[in-house]
Amino acid sequence: MKILYLETSSKNCSVAISDNEKLLCLTEEVSENYKQSESLHTFVEWALEGAGISMKDIEAVSLGKGPGSYTGLRIGASSAKGFCYGLKVPLVAVNSLESMIEPFLDKNYDFVVPLIDARRMEVYTAVYDGKTGEQISVTEAKILDETSFEEFKDKKVIFVGDGAKKAQEILQLPNADFNDNVYPSAQYLIKKSLEKIERKEFEDIAYFEPFYLKDFHGVKKKKSED
């Protein structure tokens, strides 16, 4: 089964194609200026070319549904819906935080905690079991302070994502590891997407909305910000 994956919730505009669990091609780029509107469809074309298939071969579309950049999510969702309508194929949606944890599972961490920067001291986050990847806390917008995640002070935990840098500066967790060079990536949507396809957990294309988590508040002065 050929599947197209779109992940646009962060500074990483990411497109992948798989044949079942086999990754055929990955095209992605991290940009400080959120280039999804400029790059997404070009990346899809490149990924199809790299995979050696055409759009008509695609049998399902998977979307990283957020949380994250409001504008990025809106672009990704509208593109995913358009592909599904045109191809008459199903849409599956995966929490974007889940695409950040896979490289860190089974690495002797008790917990993996993705942190997506949401400006100031706020992050989008959830907690995942470091071995199984099972989500053990709700996805939330969290204001970081010195007491955040203190329940893990005696545990081996890694914080990943572009919110990890500011977390490292404030959290009182001497045993924790931090990796701020991690973004949601389409290549790590494959496993969860296949599970959802197997269970026929498809989205209603007409009514699907990304997982914005917070209402959008526009900022007019700084065009480079989301």
UniProtKB/TrEMBL annotation:
SUPFAM superfamilies in the cross-refs: Actin-like ATPase domain
Membrane-spanning parts: none
Pfam families: TsaD
The Gcp-like domain, residue ranges: 37-179
Domain of life of the source: Bacteria
UniProt protein name: tRNA (Adenosine(37)-N6)-threonylcarbamoyltransferase complex dimerization subunit type 1 TsaB
Organism: Chryseobacterium ginsengisoli
Taxonomic path: Bacteria, Pseudomonadati, Bacteroidota, Flavobacteriia, Flavobacteriales
